[in-house]
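We treat protein structure as text, and this decision shapes the records that our systems exchange. The tokens are whole numbers drawn from a learned vocabulary of local backbone shapes. One such record is reproduced below, unchanged from the form in which we store it:
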Amino acid sequence: MNSRIKRKLQKRGLWPHHHHINLYEIDRRYGGPEEGGWWFDTGTPIQTLGKFRRNGNRFQDKLNLADKIAADMNYGRYPLSSVLSDGVVRVFIEPHKPIPWPERMPHYA
């Protein structure tokens, strides 16, 4: 992205100066019996490793740490696609602190 455009977005508050490195437990929930049954993903916050400027060395160090934590926590877990899965831990880079999602259960349409 053009740095001039990025600066304009930052001035308007549309491009965050800092990002949070967040850990979530991702799981699947049963949505209902329609069309033979459907499932949706959920995200439960575990922790945030802090708020950092994305282009800094501390950001990269914390991101590497978050990846290691997620790998350690996922050791021995089944993938989400397995009926034996009890969720997996994933790292998200977001402009806000971790929040659970979805806010409401999706409705099948």
